[in-house]
Amino acid sequence: MSNPTIDLLRHHRSIRAYLPKAIKQDDIDSIISAASSASSSSFLQCSTIIRITDQDKRTKLAHYAGDQSYVASAAEFWVFCADFNRHYQLDQTLSLGKAEQLLLGCVDTAIMAQNAVIAAESLGLGCVYVGGVRNNIDQVTELLALPKFVLPLFGLCIGHPDQNPEIKPRLPKELVFFNNEYQAVDKDALAQYDQQMNQYYHQRSEHKKAGGWSDKLPSIINKEQRDFMLSYLHKQGWITK
């Protein structure tokens, strides 16, 4: 069973090449409206989007994010932030800095961003998330003048696609959807998925790789990755208690 919304969701691709074409203001407004309509825990609305129109800042953010050129060239680049500073401005007696608030901010902001992506894709636009804004998070914080209790989680490029990448296969239902309790990995399902991914990597038009999904996990998870994050969070007022 399918419908246009499900088809749109199932055909998501990350777009990293864009035509030099601006996005209509009406479309930008529609995307923002869709993002703002996302669910919010206890209606705290603890997320903020910073649209980057200054080209110098765009260039710096592209460099900070690992020299990802599309950050500078996409029609739009937005930085999504968890934000309790807005609440702090309204009442400085609030008890902030709790671990649960970090979770709320991350969850709410991710839901908001996914609404934005779905809205953009429904308009024929392409998007890619950019977690690399956290690579040099101190510099990003300074560049965007982010006060305490604001956390830049990721960026989002939006633009008119100039590529048509293949759809990357996802983990099968047997590995991500359980009934009533957590279940051990289904090794047969994983082996089939690894074979599927190996075939995908071999056949895709760009950035060909070899191997399955599971054999790449150690190189991704075990490498040193943003070990400065805990101290940064404390400095910004997050998870201090």
Automatic annotation (TrEMBL):
UniProt-recorded Gene Ontology molecular function terms: oxidoreductase activity
Entry annotated with the keyword NADP: yes
CDD domains reported in the protein's UniProt record: NfsA-like
UniProt entry keywords in alphabetical sequence: Flavoprotein, FMN, NADP, Oxidoreductase
Highest taxon of source: Bacteria
A family per Pfam: Nitroreductase
Nitroreductase domain boundaries: 10-160
Family to which this protein belongs: Belongs to the flavin oxidoreductase frp family.
Entry protein name: Nitroreductase
Lineage: Bacteria, Pseudomonadati, Pseudomonadota, Gammaproteobacteria, Orbales
